[in-house]
Design goal:
Blueprint (H helix, E strand, L loop, with lengths): L2 E7 L27 H7 L11 E5 L3 H11 L5 E5 L5 H14 L5 E6 L3 E2 L2 H16 L3 E6 L10 E7 L20 E7 L4 H10 L2 E11 H11 L1 H12 L2 E3 L2 E3 L2 H5 L6 H6 L5 E6 L3 E2 L4 H7 L8 E3 L2 E4 L5 E4 L4 E4 L4 E5 L4 E5 L6 H10 L10 E4 L2 E9 L2 E8 L7 E3 L3 E9 L1 E6 L2 E6 L3 E4 L5 E4 L6 E9 L8 E4 L1
Parallel strand pairs: 1-2, 1-4, 2-3, 3-11, 6-12, 14-16, 15-17, 16-18
Antiparallel strand pairs: 4-9, 5-13, 6-9, 7-8, 7-9, 8-12, 10-11, 18-19, 20-21, 21-22, 22-29, 23-30, 24-27, 24-29, 25-26, 25-28
Length: about 475
């Protein structure tokens, strides 16, 4: 009974702005533990019986970050599937199912978002074992989180008839291990208001919708074809027209772009008679807002979560994060204060869900703060804006050992490079030469050039750009 983890890593995490950005979303950040949320999701699989290498479905823009984070863990995914644009969870899962079926593996898919926290791995593993037995018999299993409060930020699942005890396994366990029976799904319910959420909690008939699932690949594809043939056909065309590209599988863009956007819940789970919910009590959170992050992080004696260069005086139950500057808080409570290089967020915890409105405002006004951090990561390293003004821009650039930028040329700008640390191999026109710490070079406008790090330590340099147009799209690449 092989279990194939399918990790969905396509979210943008707008409610955790300004740390989470479109091109560097929350699943790629170390928000709770030392590792990133994606890495913690993969590490959570350690010791899972019958577990295979994961399939990761992610946005094309995040591909190198995902691959690098897996490399850091020493993990080789069975596939990293690239979506050219977001189409929600049903198409993403379908791509993974098609990949498994092409390889002749009608295994059980364990479907997990990449940005959740589960604190009790033993309970999670026990629940997965229960879910695997149900999925093997043809059920579409979802995990419902045992609610601890009348939460209005989650969808709910109403339990229907209990399944016979013989349909579940794993009823003896260590403290905290999953032991509950499974239930048929009576209904999926949208996020409620406070009074309705309290009624759900009091009734004992409702569970939080976790967005985690288990099912055989063939069962998912059959039900999808029955209820959403348009999605099934579009995904099949996109997958069939796709191709392997190094570590990645690229689906065919035009076919996938034509695919309707829908969630696993709406596309199939709300329609099928095979839906089963398995209660899970394992310290779960989707970290869907700053208030949720405050709940899952360790707090001091005043109830504060503090990260970075922060001093809190007469401050209680507050989340304070500083990435660049000293942050001081005096006489505040129940607040969220997050400082980054280019933005500061101040919000009451009760309004944490509304942070997405800020992102909508930034998008509407074409501001870059919704999309990028000041530090932008690339396959070869990263760069960070230092200063900018009319006709000039200054960047701090870091190139990882052995890495190389593309051979390129700019129509509208010249560049001055000053090496701060390490060794650079520079291609400038027909010249190739080495420069080291405290040395510099000049790249005239319109000149082909390349920057490489042949050394064993990161190359750090300051780049001063000058010209009439300094946009990132002023690049003609000859070799990449």
């Amino acid at each position: 009974m092989n279990i194939y983890p399918v990790i969905l890593s396509g979210g943008s995490g707008t409610r955790l702005w300004p740390l989470s950005r479109e091109l560097y979303p929350k699943q790629l950040l170390p928000l709770v533990e030392e590792h990133t949320m994606l890495q913690e999701t993969v590490r959570r699989l350690d010791g899972l019986p019958d577990g295979k290498a994961p399939v990761i479905v992610c946005n094309e823009e995040h591909r190198f970050l995902v691959a690098e984070q897996m490399r850091q863990l020493g993990i080789s995914p069975s596939s990293i599937m690239l979506e050219p644009l977001g189409r929600n969870t049903a198409p993403a899962l379908t791509l993974a199912a098609l990949a498994l079926m092409r390889n002749g593996e009608d295994g059980i898919m364990l479907v997990m978002p990449a940005d959740h926290v589960i604190q009790n791995a033993a309970a999670f593993h026990a629940a997965v074992q229960q879910g695997a037995a149900l999925a093997q018999d043809g059920s579409l299993v979802t995990f419902g989180i045992v609610p601890t409060e009348p939460e209005t930020g989650y969808g709910y699942i109403k339990k229907g008839a209990a399944l016979p005890a013989a349909a579940t396994i794993g009823k003896t366990a260590v403290k905290g291990e999953q032991t509950s029976d499974a239930w048929q799904v009576a209904a999926f319910v949208e996020k409620p208001d406070a009074a309705t959420a309290q009624r759900y909690l009091d009734s004992g008939e409702y569970l939080w919708n976790s967005g985690m699932f288990m099912m055989r690949a063939s069962v998912w594809l059959a039900d999808l074809a029955a209820y959403r043939p348009d999605i099934e056909q579009a995904c099949r065309a996109a997958y069939t027209g796709g191709a392997q590209d190094g570590d990645f599988f690229r689906v065919e863009k035009s076919a996938f772009s034509a695919c309707p956007s829908d969630s696993i819940d709406y596309a199939v789970m709300e329609k099928t008679a095979k839906a089963v919910v398995l209660p899970l009590d394992a310290g779960w959170s989707d970290v869907g807002a700053w208030s949720a992050l405050w709940q899952v992080r360790a707090r001091d004696t005043d109830g504060n979560v503090i990260q970075g260069d922060v001093h809190a005086h007469a401050t209680t139950n507050t989340l304070l994060i500083s990435q660049h500057r000293f942050v001081a808080a005096v006489g505040v409570k129940d607040m969220v204060i997050v400082e980054t290089a280019d933005a500061v967020l101040v919000a009451h915890k009760d309004s944490a869900q509304d942070v997405k409105k800020i992102v909508e405002h930034l998008k509407k006004h074409n501001r870059d703060e919704y999309k990028n951090q000041r530090k932008v990561y690339r396959p070869w390293g990263c760069y960070e804006g230092v200063d900018a003004g009319p006709r000039f821009q200054v960047k701090r650039i870091t190139v990882t050992p052995g890495a190389s930028l593309s051979l390129q040329m700019h129509h509208h700008r010249a560049e001055h490079w000053i090496i701060v640390k390490g060794t650079a191999r520079v291609t400038r026109g027909d010249e190739v030469f080495i420069i080291t710490e405290n040395q510099s070079t000049y790249i005239p406008l319109g000149t082909k050039h390349r920057l490489e790090n042949p050394g064993s330590i990161p190359l750090e340099m300051i780049e001063v750009q000058s010209g009439g147009y300094l946009g990132e799209d002023d690049i003609v690449r000859f070799e990449d």
